[in-house]
């Protein structure tokens, strides 16, 4: 689920928040970094559980409507298409997912049911719902595609849900686009007979990704003096106060990666940090960072300092 760019962003935030020096212990900050990464999985489960709650909400609404004292003929024989949505039922009945929700104690919607109501009412008022409910029967593909559209157009962009997530955990704000994208991909690729663990993917693609987060964090902090000297050498005409703090952190990390991670191609490192700068720093930051890294890479190349292993890593 996690990709390397998001790992770099999390490391950037941890380094930016670190106020100590090279000789200070940063065990606390490292633990918070790993907690922040692991906590992304809670957000993933929270968003998936919301879809399950929407199915339950539809079921509850149907029962209340059918049991009204003066229910109409149509209300006594309602359209059960949403209640019987095959994708939602597949999600609801998936045992590994239910186990994960219990293990991670994802019970938010029991206490904060009003947010489920907001999303559910938005669905009922949408053209998507009206079109979907024109028939009483459907197949898995139609049901799945309806949920894809609902998630993409109603759930993901909902401002009240965003505010709720931000209030619950500040680190989730940066995680939400990644989590929502992962869920959309998961829904789109789902089939009626998916593997039992389909809805509980691993947080890290492999153990190397988790190790990468720890090593990038540690090596950047442990080599700050040398990294700052490299930056100063290429910014002699710049007042240090004019360099955005985030830019400084991104330069530290990218130079560390160029020197301390031989298996990562130079182009990958540069492109990743330029993209992060575009999203998290000033409009001109990516141009500034690109200029510094370009000079350093040429210098390293001329002095044969780029210790990259494998083909095509230069």
TrEMBL record:
Pfam families: NusB. Keywords: Coiled coil, RNA-binding, Transcription, Transcription antitermination, Transcription regulation. The keyword Cytoplasm does not apply. Residues 48-75 form a coiled coil. The keyword Signal does not apply. SUPFAM superfamilies: NusB-like (SSF48013). Residues 207-298 form the NusB/RsmB/TIM44 domain. InterPro entries: NusB-like_sf (IPR035926), NusB_fam (IPR011605), NusB_RsmB_TIM44 (IPR006027). PANTHER family: ANTITERMINATION NUSB DOMAIN-CONTAINING PROTEIN (PTHR11078:SF3), N UTILIZATION SUBSTANCE PROTEIN B-RELATED (PTHR11078). Belongs to the NusB family. This is Transcription antitermination factor NusB. It comes from Corallibacter vietnamensis. The gene is nusB.
């Amino acid at each position: 689920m996690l990709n390397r760019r998001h790992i770099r962003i999390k490391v950037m935030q941890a380094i930016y928040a670190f106020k100590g020096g090279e000789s200070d212990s940063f065990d606390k900050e490292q633990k918070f970094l790993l907690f922040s990464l692991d906590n992304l999985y809670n957000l993933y489960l929270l968003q998936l559980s919301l879809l399950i709650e929407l199915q339950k909400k539809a079921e509850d609404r149907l029962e209340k409507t059918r049991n009204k004292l003066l229910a109409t003929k149509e209300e006594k024989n309602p359209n059960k298409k949403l209640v019987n949505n095959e994708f939602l039922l597949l999600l609801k009945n998936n045992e590994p997912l239910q186990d994960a929700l219990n293990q991670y104690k994802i019970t938010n919607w029991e206490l904060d049911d009003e947010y489920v109501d907001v999303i559910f009412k938005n669905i009922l008022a949408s053209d998507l719902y009206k079109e979907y409910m024109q028939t009483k029967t459907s197949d898995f593909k139609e049901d799945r595609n309806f949920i894809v559209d609902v998630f993409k157009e109603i759930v993901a962009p909902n401002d009240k849900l965003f505010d709720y997530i931000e209030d619950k955990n500040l680190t989730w704000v940066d995680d939400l686009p990644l989590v929502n994208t992962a869920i959309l991909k998961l829904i789109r690729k789902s089939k009626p007979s998916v593997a039992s663990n389909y809805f509980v993917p691993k947080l890290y693609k492999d153990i190397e990704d988790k190790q990468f987060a720890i090593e990038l964090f540690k090596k950047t902090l442990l080599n700050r003096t040398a990294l700052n000297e490299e930056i100063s050498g290429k910014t002699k005409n710049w007042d240090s106060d004019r360099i955005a703090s985030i830019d400084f952190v991104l330069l530290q990390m990218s130079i560390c990666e160029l020197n301390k991670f031989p298996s990562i191609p130079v182009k990958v490192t540069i492109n990743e940090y330029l993209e992060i700068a575009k999203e998290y720093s000033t409009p001109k930051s990516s141009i500034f960072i690109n200029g510094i890294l370009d000079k350093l890479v040429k210098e390293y190349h001329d002095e044969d300092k780029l210790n990259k292993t494998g083909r095509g890593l230069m």
